[in-house]
Amino acid sequence: MSTPPASSAPAPGASGRRAIWGWAFYDWANSAFATVVLAGFFPLLFQDFWNAGVNAETSNLRLGWANAAASLLIALSAPLIGAFADAAAVRKRLLLLFAAAGILATALLAAVPGGAWLSAALLFVCATIGFLGANLLYDALLTSIAPPERWHAVSGLGFGLGYLGGGLLYLACVLAALNPDTFGFADSTGAALAAFVLTGLWWALFSLPLILWVREPPAAAASGSGALVGRTFRQLRSTIGHLYRYRTAALFLLAYWLYIDGVGTVIRMAVAYGRALGFERSHLILALLLVQFVGFPAAIAFAHLGERIGPQRGIYLGLAVYIVVCIWGAFIRSPWEFFAIAVLIGLVQGGVQALSRSCYARLIPAARSGEFFGFYNLMGKFAALIGPPLFGLFGSWFGDVRYSMLALILLFVGGGLILSRVPGSALNARTDESTQ
């Protein structure tokens, strides 16, 4: 098998301390949306405020369709978005365009009146597309803001700041919703609606370091002549047609598809699982906060651990902890166990995500990182096709929701086994030519 063409090194002067911090603070900025909107207030308001008087099954179905629509649109378009960003040298500008759309749609949610579930769902889809599309291009910028030997640490820094920033804003919004009079709101619904405006402002404000300190990477080398759109499609077709030449990256994507589905299912289903076991809503909120604040230092530390023991072993360690979480989770009886599991998840969740991102960056040509991270994000979005249904089916088949946790072990073990086929040398040492 021939070696793929040499990839371009980061542009001279594109990396540096300010660029790294500017890039990492975007994670601080947009994680507010992930925590406050996606995991926190939108699902609650969608059912209790915008779907008032509608049964929970109908409300959840509407929310499920909204989530699916946003994820599917980004998943199908991600490789094309990445290819266009590379060909036109607009990774940063396109990131900011998606972010601006997400920020505006998020803030507008506060103006949607009660009962207007369709308007809320459409704005939520727009906000989620903005969030996911910007994330695709944010990941791709990693290869241009730091040298390869620092990618693990820089990726961990981003996730760590994201956990801290999202957790701090979520804590402030929860306090306002629980004590509306103290914060000048008429009721908790008013405080929750204001959280959408505050999230938009937070996202916009902390995007400024990226705007000011991160430079636009150069365009990928064009093959042949022609209009930009034509070159974009040719570049995308070339990557798909020659993906087999990047066989290590393709193998890594398959492993990532499985184990990140397990990680994502834990994130999506933890609250529902806790409610099914009878835990109080306050306990679930506290558990989510624990994950955020433990995740801040843990993601940074885990990335450094990955540098010391090897990123592949670091991911294995994280998957092993998730397997322990699944087994313990199937037998928990008291709230303290739920909190302990939240701490365990916080210790490894960001680390697994950070090491996965930086490992993949080592396996692809840097000049086409936007395009290749389009495939990376595509796999991450399509991963939701397995985990949540499997989670529900195990509970139905065995007649007890506790068995649902055991289903996720299949994803973590399967992903780990496929990851073991990826040569460790390819993940530990990046060269200008991908070692595939």
Automatic annotation (TrEMBL):
It is found in: Endomembrane system. InterPro entries: Atg22-like (IPR024671), ATG22/LtaA_families (IPR050495), MFS_dom (IPR020846), MFS_trans_sf (IPR036259). The chain crosses the membrane at residues 25-45, 65-87, 94-112, 118-141, 153-178, 190-214, 249-271, 283-303, 315-332, 338-355, 375-397, 403-420. Its main location: membrane. It is a multi-pass membrane protein. Keywords: Membrane, Transmembrane, Transmembrane helix, Transport. Residues 20-432 form the Major facilitator superfamily (MFS) profile domain. It comes from the Bacteria. PANTHER family: AUTOPHAGY-RELATED PROTEIN 22. This is MFS transporter. The lineage of its organism: Bacteria, Pseudomonadati, Pseudomonadota, Gammaproteobacteria, Cellvibrionales.
